[in-house]
Amino acid sequence: MFANTVFNAVRNGVQKFFCKKNFTTVPSSSPSCPLKQHMEVDGKCALVVDGTSGVGHAFADELLKMNAAKVIITGLNGMKGAETACEFNKIYGQGRVDFYQTDVGNNYEIKNMFKYIKNNFEALDVFFNNAETHEGGVDDMIATNFNSKIHGIILATKNMKEGSVIVNHTSAIGLNPNSDMIAHSAASTGFLVASMAFSKNKYFKNTNIRMTTLCSELFPSTFVGGTVPPITCDCQEAQRNMEISIAKSATYLVKHGSNNTLWLCQQTGILSIVELQKIVEYTEKYEPRIIIDDQ
Fold first, then answer.
1. Which residues 6+ apart lie within 8 Å of 265 measured at CB?
2. Is 220 in contact with 176 (CB distance < 8 Å)?
3. Cα–Cα distance between 281 and 132 in angstroms, integer?
4. Are 290 and 35 in contact (CB under 8 A)?
5. Helix axis angle, 54-65 to 235-256, nearest 10°
6. Taking the model in full, what pTM does it have?
7. Which Pfam family is one of those matched by this entry (predicted)?
8. In the structure, what pLDDT confidence band is assigned to residue 20 with cuts at 50, 70 and 90?
């Protein structure tokens, strides 16, 4: 009961910046979104968190199609990770993909992951900060969807070279102030705010590492664009198509996304830049002071 009260307060307070009347989207193909080329993927080294399945797997595949020299994928299941890396290497060439087993909800393991990469590979060019869970309790949700991503940003900036890029991926539920998924919504909203803060403050000035944030409508519960459209094909096929759309959006941001920008990949596959509007008016409410007489 207390946890729900706290998370509702955090979510409702922070999401005033993201509620529907306070953000607008501009299609990425519009004149206001020029296609400036920031990076070519060819020959680059990338780290993809949770790259053994879902969006991470699709993103790793897109990077390899663009001739990335090395892609390191992470995951919790060692057998599945080894099999995924082997499958990628059969398609794209031996040694192109490495797997590192880690629990991104464990900060110690995240540190070891970056230490391993630093000792075995060249400096990272691309970091896809993609840890996301929709299961478990409040602690698991916050540890994975918020804490691990913050630690990922901090550690990545210490292990990436100037001119590299971080694409932070989270759920679009962070843009929805009316969601009943309290812990998930609070974690996503908090991370959106933190990601934008990281990309415009000392981390960018000191490192010159470009950082963009992508939120996506992967599941019906995360839709922010209106009513949920009817699914006209197999559910698994629809989800896979959405994962590919998100992966293509992420590769677009690697190449073209400017620093300190926030993007939305809708269930329709449309990628839009999200322009946040500041709160210019607010009302302070004061409760009457209550003096308790001990006598």
1. 172, 214, 215, 216, 217, 245, 246, 249, 271
2. no
3. 34
4. no
5. 50
6. 0.80
7. adh_short
8. very low
